[in-house]
Amino acid sequence: MTELTVSADIVASVHYTGTLPDNGEVFDSSEGREPLSFLVGHKQMIPGFEEEIMGAKIGEKKEFTLTSERAYGDRDEAAVMEIPRGQFAQLEAESSLEVGMQLVAQMPHGPSPFTITVLTDEAVTADFNHTLAGKSLTFAVEIVDLREVTDDEKSHGHAHGPDGHHQH
To answer: What is the dihedral of CA 32, 154, 72, 138, to 10 degrees?
Structure first.
């Protein structure tokens, strides 16, 4: 039995902490939660994350910094849009809009999260860039488990939890 390493069609379970290299701010971490499991090679993770842990074994720890190209991409100014404030009337009836608020727009291609960057009486400026777009990201990753993919998982293109597949 050869020792498994992180490679395509392996389900990897990792503990990780993601920080911003310029100020050390933690933007995401699995600490205090179940490890993150994902099917390697199926674009479930940002590209650089998988590239950096390829070949790692269980128990191995890696730390790496990804430039924005290998993380969430560069900011796209075309992804910043002004939306007439009237379109938020229903939402504003329930809560007030604020700069920095994150909302999700229902777009033809599916839900698209955005951040409100400017508010005027007439319009809401919505930034559809990923909040981490244009940023370099540092990850500390520990490989906690590796296993072969099941046929079921492979056909679905993602890892299933310890108790199988749940439809949400």
So the answer is: 40
What does pTM read for this prediction? 0.81
pLDDT digits (tens, 9 = 90+) for 75-108: 999 999 999 999 999 888 888 999 999 999 888 8
Identify whether residues 151 and 68 lie together within a single domain: yes
Q: Distance between CA atoms of 121 and 52, rounded to whole angstroms? A: 47
The residue count of the chain comes to 168
**Residue 154 in this model has a pLDDT that exceeds 90:** no
Integer Cα distance of 141 and 53 in angstroms: 8
Kindly report the number of other CB atoms within 10 A of residue 1's CB atom. 3
Nearest to 34 by CA among 144, 139, 140: 144
Q: The domain containing residue 140 runs over which residues?
A: 10-72+133-156
Residues 26 and 63 in one domain: yes
Q: How far is CA 147 from the centre of its chain?
A: 22
Q: For the chain, give percent helix, strand, coil, nearest 5.
A: 15, 40, 45
pLDDT in tens, 22-69: 999 999 999 999 999 999 999 899 999 999 999 999 999 999 999 999
**Average of per-residue pLDDT values in the chain:** 92
